[in-house]
Amino acid sequence: MTRTPPWLSVVIPAFNEEANLEACHRELVPVLEGLGRPFEVIVVDDGSTDRTFEVLTGLAAADPRLRLIRFRRNAGQTAALDAGFKAALGEVVVTMDADLQNDPRDIPRLLAQLGPYDAACGWRVRRQDSWVKRVSSRIANAVRNRLTAESIHDTGCTLKAYRRECLARLKLYRGMHRFLPTLLKLEGFRVVEVPVNHRPRRAGRSKYSIGNRLWAGLADLLAVRWMMRRRLEYEIERIV
Question: Which one of 107, 150, 215, 216 is separated from 137 by 20 to 30 angstroms, measured CA to CA?
Answer without folding.
Answer: 107
